[in-house]
Amino acid sequence: MTTRSFGEPIARLEDPRLLTGRGRFLDDIGHRALAAAFVRSPHAHARIADIDVTDAVDVEGLVAIFTHDDLDGRAGEPLPLLIPHEALTHGRTGYALAKDEVNHVGEPIVMVVATDRYVAEDVCARIRVDYEFLPPVVGIEAAREAELLVHDDVPGNVAAHMVQQNGDVEAALAAAPHVLELDLDIERSASTPLEGRGVHARWDPDDASLRVYTSTQASTSVRAALAARLELPLDRVEVVAPDVGGGFGVKIVHPWPEEVLVPWAAIRLGREVKWTEDRREHFVGATHERGQLQHVEVGFDDDGRLLGLDVTVWHDNGAYTPYGIIVPIITTTQLLGPYKPGAYRAEFFSLYTNTVTVTPYRGAGRPQGCFAMERTMDAIAAHLGLDRTVVRERNFIRPDEMPYDHGLIFQDGRPLVYDSGDYPATLDKLKKLIGWDEFEAFRAEARAAGRRVGIGIACYVEGTGVGPYEGGWVKVETDGTVVAATGLTTQGQGHRTVFAQVVASELGVPVDRVVVTTGDTRRFGYAVGTFASRAAVMSGNALASAARKVREKALRVAGEALEADPRDLEIVDGVVRVTGSPAGAPGASIPLATVAVLANPLRYAFDREAERATQFGGPVDFSKPPVAEGDSPGLEDTGFYSPPRSTFANGMHAAIVETDPDTAEISILRYCVVHDCGTLINPRIVEGQIHGGVAQGVGGALYERMVYDDAGQLLNASFMDFLMPYATEVPVIETDHLETPSPLNPLGIKGAGEAGVIPGSAVLASAISDAEGFAVTRMPISPSDLFSLRLARESR
Amino acid sequence: MKPAGFTYHRPVTVDDAVAVLAEVGPAGKVLAGGQSLVPLLNMRLAAPEHLVDINRLSGLAYVRADGDGVTVGALARHADVERDETAYAVLPLLRETLRHVAHPTIRNRGTTVGSIAHADPAGELTAVLALLGGTVTLRRAGGQRTVAAADFFTGPMSTCADAGELVTSVTFPVPEGRTGAVWTEVARRHGDYAVCGTGVVVTLDDDLRVAGARAAYVSMGPEPVVVDLTEAVAGAMYDDAGWPAAGRLAAGLLEPDDDIHATAAYRRHLAEVLTARALREAAGRAAGGQR
Ligand SMILES: Cc1cc2nc3c(=O)[nH]c(=O)nc-3n(C[C@H](O)[C@H](O)[C@H](O)COP(=O)(O)OP(=O)(O)OC[C@H]3O[C@@H](n4cnc5c(N)ncnc54)[C@H](O)[C@@H]3O)c2cc1C
User: What distance in Å separates the CA atoms of residue B35 and residue A350, rounded to the nearest whole number?
Assistant: First the structure.
């Protein structure tokens, strides 16, 4: 066997650098750059009557003020609609700088460039914009009623209306012995990465080239978008994602207005320009997610088996639709979770409001779908007086029914077919982990002590690893270092570690010999991006494929040097040797570093290693050219992975909560997770992903909401009032794993990035409902909300 | 989120500090720990022309405690007060309350006096000062005065301090007689400003009957509210008093507002529940001689 770190919980290779302050994030780059700041709309809906810069132009240090009128060429066009869809009949996007109208508080109107950010903000404060106010549409109800419109030419505020159906739901519901209806409500939240967005651009007039650093999840696509917008040849544009302090979805959106404007200004001014987003800008100028109203109609038999499920979703997409309708599509397809729904019909309306645009945030529509389905499962159990796990179990897709075709189209435009999973086994593990069957004894004990406790459960299935493709490049340097690159980006997940594990294991080198670069278009130009829990599946398999090719070549070259059949060779700890030969046996092994030297025939000996590869370096077969036809010099190769369809991970969470009978405070006593993301590359990293996800799930369930007033002002646009949970609010998370390999890719892996967040609201609503004795239908829930619910029940 | 320009002063003596403050008048602001002021500057919700940094006034970095009370100088950090053993011995309420004020990193920097001067009606120490009937000492060029807490707080984020005045210290007196004091609150997250918080002092007579009960509240009005609840519990045995009635009395006297974290009704309900809880515990402490 070769060195195999694959599957081992090794420590993250990136941590020593990051934890000792040697990370280089966007704001660490370009200290001499000019600074940009923006005048943003203070109004939710208005026409721009006039922009007056008279008082601003004298400020010392001001370099330039730009408005939409200045944006020449394609820079002034509406921003792209990244993911068009036939159901998105009324897609709308904003401009890099608002033209005539603003549709949410925070929309950029004027760009100021100055010697530093302080001056730039001084200038912004002196620019006067006159507005003609338009009445704002705030909240899903107002959007649905459509008495007022966000965009004049979008009737009913409906950006998209879509129906997916499998089977005859009307008939199924009509025939069902039991039918229940539920109205559900999930509020907005947001990715809120610790590092906001940021862009630095440098135009090199001598080279006629542009280099852009941006805190993005999709550098290759930013590059293509910028080349198009700024009308530059693609090969004159480089985009690099430096260290990125979290993304969680928001940084997949591109090109942001600022991402277009900063490079545009850098070219125009011939100076380095940088913009680092501040927290307030992030709240109103980036994107949010989650907000939905849902109506569920479900028919089931006496055992709780689903016969028909009809779901309608009203999705708040905010002011624009730059990322299409991915979120509600995911909600209405992933809602199904591990269950067979009987006849299924899902309809959604994606609605405009005069609030910040909605794009995927970790979970990307799944938490809402999971909420709908799991609240429904609990409702069925309550209605029939059955244990909640029993109802779920009865509706599970069984392992022998895999692959399972739901007869729907998923977010990647491909059939929704589950590849693998063992849901009964997952549930079994979870019940044991939390002690489901012993809970009633605990409840009785607690009750006797005047305490109120409840237990909840929620299950999900997550489509991960969506295409179209990712690529990887692997090269063995002549000193034996292995360098690898993939185009997708990293935001702190530990990709460099897991990719190094994949490459090291395929190649047979120690993992610390592998150096991985991500998200740098100079190093790898073909990529899609980091989203949809796809990095490990996509780039992992692509890098594995590249590494396998490199290995093959290494064995071939080494075989020639050792005069051995490559099939008799193996690579162990960076040394190619005759299989089974003892380490250091003479004539039976050759270091990979030397193989790399030999793989690149040279004319010039620039160092001692290179000498061996020169024309006079050793015995030569004169019948062959130095580089064989079809071969290429060097010990390097590229691989791609393109999946036929998504792979489906799954998991189940259970929680025990306590609700204070007096103060209505809610505390989580236990939180258990059983998770199946196929073959684990690094259990420690998967666990970290789950922990982070659960933290965000708890945030979405108990703390975070975007509080808009009727005028469309976001009242809590700071971390003082937007209550992201602290470490003190996140429970100890107990985890267990199941490894059901995916048959769809050679490594058998499924994505894990988003999983932890998905069932957060569902499981905590389930547990709180259980503690309180009534169904919670709206999340998040605060102690004040719980108090109001109790009052409303008492007065009934 | 960058502050507007200002002139920065960093005096090294109190005399210099009050001289500068006198000179710049209403255009000046004192900078202590900066934990409240700097965010306001960054968001340009405050834009003073002059900032007078008092962090070099090392003579004001003291906590003095004796049997009468605890006096805290303007440069004592929350953490200094929290960790002062003598202060804890004479007035445990201070440490207990400070543990609810923000997080350790913020308490390492933020000052107790700054918190009083800032007069945030959600700031725990404003209520504690009001509850104990404490005093505030202010210096200005050529003079000094001491003001009772009740007169010092004049509204949300506003005090009777004049432009040019520096708060040099505050004094938290130890309540007289056989007393017990407790702070309790409900906050959305650990260390957040409270949704409702209350500090109470219960006084018992020699027979362990309730002689007095007072409570002060944060986040329940425009300034720290102090209410006397003695009438609801006077004369009752410490372990058998009608604390819920005192809670109801308190709730009826308070007029909280709705905000994005809680409704007024919930706040009033919390006041009722927390007041009863805190009074019961305070009475137990008083009976046990624990303060
Ligand atoms: C995340 C966070 C959470 C917090 N949570 C809480 C909490 O739960 N409870 C709580 O009570 N506080 C909380 N705070 C505030 C904290 O306690 C502050 O430190 C305190 O309110 C102000 O002290 P400071 O020294 O930082 O004052 P600064 O911010 O420097 O000043 C605040 C104001 O007081 C004035 N001032 C300060 N010192 C003097 C003086 N000697 N004379 C005259 N004027 C003066 C300043 O001019 C300014 O207007 C929190 C702060 C943060 C950042």
Answer: 42
Distance B11 CA to ligand 1 centre (A): 20
Q: What is the 3-state secondary structure (H, E, C) of chain B?
A: CCCCCCEEECCCCHHHHHHHHHHHHHHEEEECCCCCHHHHHHCCCCCCCEEEECCCCHHHCCEEEECCEEEEECCCEHHHHHHCHHHHHHCHHHHHHHCCCCCHHHHHHCEHHHHHHHCCCCCHHHHHHHHHCCEEEEEECCEEEEEEHHHHEEECCEECCCCCCEEEEEEEECCCCEEEEEEEEEECCCCCCEEEEEEEEEEECCCCEEEEEEEEEECCCCCCEEEECHHHHCCCECCCCCHHHHHHHHHHHCCCCCCCCCCHHHHHHHHHHHHHHHHHHHHHHHHCCCC
What tokens does A384 get? 């029939």
What pLDDT is stored for residue A618 in this prediction? 66
Could you give the CA distance from residue A382 to residue A790 in angstroms, rounded to a whole number? 19
Closest by Cα among A292, A365, A307 to A339: A307
Q: Which residue of A has its CA nearest to B47?
A: A122
pLDDT tens-digit readout, A664-688: 999 999 999 999 999 999 999 999 9
Pick the CATH number of A32-134+191-285 from 3.40.630.30, 3.40.630.10, 3.40.50.720, 3.90.1170.50: 3.90.1170.50
Select from A87, A161, A165, A162 the least CA-distant residue to A345: A165
The residue-averaged pLDDT of A402-429 equals 94
pLDDT in tens, A638-669: 999 999 999 999 999 999 999 999 999 999 99
Which among A795, A759, A764 has a CA at the least distance from the CA of A781? A764
- B143, β-bridge pairs: B140
Apex CA A24: angle with CA A20 and CA A28, to 5°?
Answer: 115
Q: What is the pLDDT of residue A617?
A: 65
Give every CB contact of residue A693 below 8 A, 6+ residues apart in sequence. Answer: A362, A363, A753, A754, A755, A756, A757, A758, A760
Q: Tell if the CB–CB gap between B3 and A783 is shorter than 8 Å.
A: no
pLDDT in tens, A272-305: 999 999 999 999 999 999 999 999 999 999 999 9
The CATH 3.90.1170.50 domain(s) of chain A lie at: 32-134+191-285
Here the tokens at position B258 are 């709705």
Options 3.30.230.10, 3.40.190.10, 3.30.365.10, 3.50.50.60; CATH for A292-466+644-794 is: 3.30.365.10
Residues A242, A755, A538, A12: is their CA dihedral positive or negative? positive
Whether residue A201 contacts residue A220, with contact meaning beta carbons closer than 8 Å, is answered with no
Chain A residues touching B41 at Cβ < 8 A? none
Alpha helix ranges (H) inside A400-534? 423-434, 439-448, 495-507
As annotated, the residues of chain A forming the CATH 3.30.365.10 domain(s) are 292-466+644-794, 467-599+634-641
The beta-carbon neighbor of B261 closest among A665, A729, A784 is A784
Positive or negative, the Cα torsion across A261, A264, A266, A269? negative
Domain A467-599+634-641 class in CATH: alpha beta
Q: Are A569 and A579 in contact (CB under 8 A)?
A: yes
**Ligand 1 centroid to residue A428 C-alpha, Å:** 52
Q: Is the CB of residue B244 less than 8 Å away from at least one CB of chain A?
A: no
Yes or no, beta carbons of A726 and B191 under 8 Å apart: yes
| Helix H or strand E encompassing A641 | strand A636-641
Cα separation, A755 vs A532, in Å, equals: 10
Backbone angles phi, psi at B213, to 5 degrees: -145, 125
What structural domains does chain B harbor?
Answer: 7-53 (3.30.43.10), 58-173 (3.30.465.10), 178-286 (3.30.390.50)
